[in-house]
């Protein structure tokens, strides 16, 4: 079939060549003819042929040239088609051009043929019967429960959770906090949890307090060790000894989550606001380390209450805070009730309350149902 296509294309080419030659001869004849009629020699400028003649003669000449240009375009199109036919006649592949689908490079049929042997694979089919021994030997890996509302369902599958339970961590408290359960499941015990537990033990935290710290502050397991060391070193640089630092971390689990800059700002605030010495500042912070963790707004509010509503002077407030640091974080309403009972009911004057705040606190706190 390819040879017949080639012969047909050759015939078309010979026919087209004859047309081309005839058109060329016609063109040359017309040029000579119009040159004779116009009795004007042609003029060549920039490779173009020009004639001089009457206006009517030039119009006829333009009409003939227009017809000849259309015929030349037609011959050019047929020449391209002949060349494409000759090119296709040299190969056995037929390319179909589609106006919608993209053109794909043609490859021979032999290259596309891939032998498919269904019996050549060694894998077992899903429909193939197996023996009872083979069925018993099949083991499936243990997987995490897909979804659960309790961390209890993951304890047997997670090394991190099982070890945290042994440390005394209350998972039922942690699972009530958003995103904490998923965070713990993503932690690796050997690379994430164990190094931070060893850090807490190295700074002096007792084993019995590890469960309490992680229960209240599980995010300490995601803090970098470099940041934790930097914060402990800062506290020691402010003359907090190792035992004090360990005690502060045990009683204020969020203490080491705050940056060095924030810790420094908090210490400076209490020292300047209460006009305390560095020793007294360390004293109240060591006794109530959550002063470095909580918000400063309640502290500022209580200082205003003591000065404006209760009528204490600044030096009296300073003496009371050094003796009973809880005054800074106490509930405003409870603080007012204590003063009302001591000063208005029991008729205790301001200077006696300032001189013995601890004694009066031991008396008043139980009466108001508070813990001192």
UniProtKB/TrEMBL annotation:
Gene Ontology terms describing biological process: mitochondrial ribosome assembly; mitochondrial transcription
GO molecular function annotation: nucleic acid binding
GO CC aspect terms: mitochondrion
Designated name of the protein: Transcription termination factor 3, mitochondrial
Lineage of producing organism: Eukaryota, Metazoa, Chordata, Craniata, Vertebrata
